[in-house]
């Protein structure tokens, strides 16, 4: 199967394309676009990080010291939006762009021009989002979930956010369609679905989730927009609407969104563990089925985010049982990774450290997720720091750690240069230690009764907050180490990487030279 | 000092359990004082134990492997990559464990939802950013008051030492009798709030335009504190909840006291007030209801919260200002105060804003004018 477009056939012409900035603006090359996604997401990660550190600085001690409550709410809101839509999601799309064609032996993504367009929408959305801090009234302060009616009260920063969400949604949908078509149609001869690397599988399923739920989010924020400006009453009881309707629509998007941010991470980890255990992935088929089960279940659990809205007992029980079920396929994945490591011949280069760290810390987030699933316990911990701890364990220690694992794993392929093991390991150990110093105490804070999204707190929470703030600054600064590691590779400062720099790495991406040439697999490889 | 505040002090000194907050574990759920909260506490402990056992088992295996199956220790990789029996086992066993967890949780969900046959029913209304309480059924019927955080700004801004119950203290606490089933009806006036008192095991969103309910029966006298748990805007972190659980006798005394007070303060809506009286009263109403947004100096926090000092509406036609204050402004945080405050309070606060800072209209708005505007 080789659905190559005419401009890819003539490889030798690419040197005559635009140079300088225009090369990046007009590029349709999956590797260029992947690189831009990764750079964009890292910039957004740092922006969201600065917001997080401002929040932690304010919470270092009881009392108001650094920001005003209104601005504090803007920071928590924008931190969430920027990290979810600006950092984590685009980073995974960057990995998909770079690696999917290389993994399935395709010459590029299926829709190369749409690929360019779906990237270049993102900076526009980011400017609207970050720019909303500077409009009268500042950015939206309704929380990243943008709950009505609070979001209806906001100033024009809210409108900018709505448009940014629309644009990012369009970008995600186009990216997802591209991924689905690429994976289904452009696999090399002999690469059957069940021979695909697991990363391709997880991204294929993720792409379907994106196509299913991004329009739902767009609908939710559009209803807010019309409630704000055009006299509708979707979320206003006085006009026959219901504020809780917003939450149902939002979380119908929001819960699959959680898996959109973690399934590709599962894929990356499933590539790395077998490489460094020098042993094939245990239970490949069950991994695929588990991923699909998680994706399907994710559509029927949304109201577990809403246990305190006051729903009938039967509804609460249904969503509790469905949510608990998700622990089963997720558990299968963890068991499979551990079984892959079992009786392997392991080495712990930086990617393996991150992947092992991922399993350890992500699983803690999984356990707290199970505890949150129990409706009566959730009544106590909903909207507290316990939940903040829970979703940072799965989003930072889950998604972000897997992204770093993947970045170190494929950096030699991307740049042709080995990263410094010392710097990579330093980055890992600083990150995992400071991560736990920051977020572990938040479990205690939440259990003892500290609500989330508050700019100031009662005195009994002071010690753990101070500790969390110290950890947060350590964690934030640790991420600068990553810049050093990447810049060294990009500048060619390091050992030259072989086509396959890892001893036992499987997969087509390791059959092309390092760095991967601008065009690869113009003649599809044959997979036995 | 208000009667209520004095009562709070007596309750605090009389009830040893009031110290429970101080003895509270800083790493676990608060000491429960209702059957539901106790069930939640025990269920959480059980879940923690199960999770810890699984955690130790899974990561025991993983770290054993990490330390022993290393290439540097001469480990040679095996080649197995599936085992149907093992895979079925680790799918089925978790399902059984989950069933064991779901059983007690189901029982608790059902008892949490049973709000039938309450002894006392109280309606709690969330406002940006305070709680209003109406005792609508049972002993104390007819009592109503607004409950504001009582922590002074000086403590928040670091100009004064922070008190023991910093941010968790209110001017008018909810008072309920011990051992009685209390049903709380919840609604909100503007945005979604949530009424949460951890020791009672109660957290319920208050949704504007809808009524939700929840219940508790406190087994122990004492003072239990909580917060608004749903982001509700600027002062979300500053609308605490304080519940005083009293013995039956003390509760009856409190009810009598409240009802006496209500009768005493019943104002004659047709009374003609002097400008100075209205301004003095209005300043207090302003501090309790308006200053959070419009600020004590009337400068506001533009553009979200516009200044009143020098405002053309405040200095202009009084009918327009009365309309804004009574009906609020759609799509902004400006609430409709027509139903929240008495005619006298409304007249006083409008008169105050028209005669404070640089606004010197010299006009006194009488309660009768407000009543007229209401009709």
From TrEMBL, chain A:
It is a multi-pass membrane protein. Keywords: Cell membrane, Copper, Electron transport, Heme, Iron, Membrane, Metal-binding, Oxidoreductase, Respiratory chain, Translocase, Transmembrane, Transmembrane helix, Transport. GO terms for cellular component: plasma membrane; respiratory chain complex IV. Residues 24-528 form the Cytochrome oxidase subunit I profile domain. GO terms for biological process: electron transport coupled proton transport; oxidative phosphorylation; respiratory electron transport chain. PROSITE patterns: COX1, COX1_CUB. It is found in: Cell membrane; Membrane. The gene is ctaD. This is Cytochrome c oxidase subunit 1. Pathway: Energy metabolism; oxidative phosphorylation. It catalyses: 4 Fe(II)-[cytochrome c] + O2 + 8 H(+)(in) = 4 Fe(III)-[cytochrome c] + 2 H2O + 4 H(+)(out). Cytochrome c oxidase is the component of the respiratory chain that catalyzes the reduction of oxygen to water. Subunits 1-3 form the functional core of the enzyme complex. CO I is the catalytic subunit of the enzyme. Electrons originating in cytochrome c are transferred via the copper A center of subunit 2 and heme A of subunit 1 to the bimetallic center formed by heme A3 and copper B. It comes from Denitromonas halophila. SUPFAM superfamilies: Cytochrome c oxidase subunit I-like (SSF81442). It holds the Pfam family COX1. Its EC number is 7.1.1.9. Belongs to the heme-copper respiratory oxidase family. Its main location: membrane. GO terms for molecular function: cytochrome-c oxidase activity; heme binding; metal ion binding; oxidoreductase activity. The chain crosses the membrane at residues 37-57, 77-98, 119-142, 162-186, 198-225, 245-269, 281-305, 317-339, 351-377, 389-411, 423-444, 464-487.
TrEMBL record, chain B:
One of its GO terms (molecular function) is cytochrome-c oxidase activity. It catalyses: 4 Fe(II)-[cytochrome c] + O2 + 8 H(+)(in) = 4 Fe(III)-[cytochrome c] + 2 H2O + 4 H(+)(out). Its EC number is 7.1.1.9. It is an enzyme of class 7 (translocase). The keyword Signal applies. It is found in: Cell membrane; Membrane. Residues 277-357 form the Cytochrome c domain. InterPro entries: CcO_II, CcO_II-like_C, Copper_CuA, Cupredoxin, Cyt_c-like_dom, Cyt_c-like_dom_sf, Cyt_c_oxidase_su2, Cyt_c_oxidase_su2_TM_dom. Binds a copper A center. Residues 1-22 form the signal peptide. Its cofactor is Cu cation. This is Cytochrome c oxidase subunit 2.
């Amino acid at each position: 199967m080789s659905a190559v477009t005419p401009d890819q056939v003539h490889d030798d012409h690419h040197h005559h394309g635009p140079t300088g900035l225009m090369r990046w603006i007009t590029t349709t090359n999956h590797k260029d676009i992947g690189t831009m996604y990764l750079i964009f997401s890292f910039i957004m990660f740092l922006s969201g990080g600065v917001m997080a550190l401002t929040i932690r600085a304010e919470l270092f001690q009881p009392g108001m010291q650094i920001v005003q409550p209104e601005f504090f709410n803007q920071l928590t809101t924008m931190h969430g939006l920027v990290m979810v839509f600006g950092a984590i999601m685009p980073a995974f799309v960057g990995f998909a762009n770079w690696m999917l064609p290389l993994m399935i032996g395709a010459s590029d993504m299926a829709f190369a021009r749409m690929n360019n367009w779906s990237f270049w929408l993102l900076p526009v959305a980011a400017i609207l989002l970050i720019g909303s801090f500077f409009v009268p009234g500042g950015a939206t302060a309704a929380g990243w979930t943008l709950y009505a009616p609070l979001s209806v009260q906001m100033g024009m920063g809210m409108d900018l956010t709505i448009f940014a969400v629309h644009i990012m949604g369009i970008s995600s949908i186009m990216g997802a369609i591209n991924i689905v078509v690429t994976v289904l149609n452009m696999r090399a001869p002999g690469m059957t679905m069940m021979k695909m690397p697991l990363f391709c599988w997880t991204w294929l399923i993720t792409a379907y989730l994106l196509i299913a739920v991004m329009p739902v989010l767009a609908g939710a924020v559009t209803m807010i927009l019309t409630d704000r400006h055009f006299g509708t009453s979707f979320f206003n009881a006085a006009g026959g609407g219901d504020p809780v309707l917003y939450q149902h629509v939002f979380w119908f998007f929001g819960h699959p969104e959680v898996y959109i941010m973690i399934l590709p991470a599962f894929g990356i980890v499933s590539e790395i563990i077998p490489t460094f255990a020098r042993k094939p992935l245990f239970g490949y088929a069950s991994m695929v089925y588990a991923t699909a089960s998680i994706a399907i279940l994710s559509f029927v659990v949304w109201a577990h985010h809403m246990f305190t809205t006051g729903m009938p007992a039967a509804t609460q029980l249904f969503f509790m049982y469905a949510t608990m079920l998700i622990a089963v396929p997720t558990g299968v994945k963890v068991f499979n990774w551990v079984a892959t490591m079992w009786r392997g011949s392991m080495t712990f280069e930086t990617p393996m450290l991150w992947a092992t760290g991922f399993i350890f810390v992500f699983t803690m987030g999984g356990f707290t997720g199970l505890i949150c699933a129990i409706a009566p316990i959730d009544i106590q911990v909903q909207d507290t720091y316990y939940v903040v701890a829970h979703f940072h364990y799965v989003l930072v220690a889950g998604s972000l750690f897997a992204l770093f694992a993947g970045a170190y794993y494929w950096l030699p392929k991307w740049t042709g240069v080995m990263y410094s093991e010392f710097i990579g390991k330093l980055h890992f150990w600083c990150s995992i230690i400071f991560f736990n110093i920051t977020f572990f105490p938040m479990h205690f804070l939440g259990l003892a009764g500290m609500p989330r999204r508050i700019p100031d707190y009662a005195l009994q929470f002071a010690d753990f907050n101070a500790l969390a703030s110290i950890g947060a600054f350590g964690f934030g600064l640790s991420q600068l180490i990553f810049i050093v590691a990447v810049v060294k590779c990009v500048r060619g400062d390091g050992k030259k990487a072989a086509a396959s720099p890892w001893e036992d790495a499987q997969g087509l991406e390791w059959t092309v030279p390092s760095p991967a040439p601008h065009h690869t697999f113009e003649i599809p490889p044959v997979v036995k | 000092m208000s009667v209520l505040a004095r009562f709070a002090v007596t309750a605090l000194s009389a009830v040893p359990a009031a110290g429970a907050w101080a003895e509270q574990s800083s790493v676990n759920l608060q000491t429960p004082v209702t059957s539901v909260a106790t069930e939640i506490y025990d269920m959480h402990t059980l879940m923690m134990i199960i999770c810890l056992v699984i955690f130790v088992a899974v990561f025991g295996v993983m770290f054993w492997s990490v330390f022993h199956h290393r290439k540097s220790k001469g480990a040679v990789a095996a080649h197995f990559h599936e085992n149907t029996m093992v895979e079925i086992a680790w799918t089925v066993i978790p399902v059984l464990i989950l069933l064991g967890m779901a059983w007690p949780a189901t029982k608790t969900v059902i008892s949490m939802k049973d709000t039938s046959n309450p002894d006392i029913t109280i309606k709690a209304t969330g406002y940006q950013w305070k709680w209003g309480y109406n005792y609508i059924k049972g002993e104390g019927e007819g009592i109503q008051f607004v409950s504001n955080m009582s922590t002074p700004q000086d403590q928040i801004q670091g100009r004064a030492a922070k008190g023991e119950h910093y941010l968790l203290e209110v001017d008018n606490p909810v008072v309920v009798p011990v051992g009685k089933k209390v049903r709380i009806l919840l609604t909100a006036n503007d945005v979604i709030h949530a009424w949460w008192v951890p020791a009672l095991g109660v957290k319920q969103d208050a949704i504007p335009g809808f009524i939700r309910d929840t219940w508790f029966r406190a087994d122990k006298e004492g003072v239990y504190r909580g917060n608004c748990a749903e982001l509700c805007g600027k002062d979300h972190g500053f609308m605490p909840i304080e519940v005083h659980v009293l013995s039956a006798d003390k509760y009856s005394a409190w009810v009598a006291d409240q009802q006496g007070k209500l009768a005493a303060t019943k104002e004659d809506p047709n009374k003609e007030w002097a400008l100075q009286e209205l301004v003095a009263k209005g300043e207090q109403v302003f501090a309790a209801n308006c200053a959070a947004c419009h600020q004590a100096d009337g400068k506001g926090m533009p553009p979200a919260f516009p200044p009143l000092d020098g405002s053309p509406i405040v200095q202009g036609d009084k009918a327009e200002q009365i309309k804004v204050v009574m009906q609020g402004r759609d799509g902004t945080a400006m609430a409709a105060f027509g139903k929240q405050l008495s005619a006298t309070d409304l007249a006083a606060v409008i008169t105050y804003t028209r005669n404070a800072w640089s606004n010197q209209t010299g006009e006194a708005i009488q309660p009768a004018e407000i009543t007229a505007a209401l009709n």
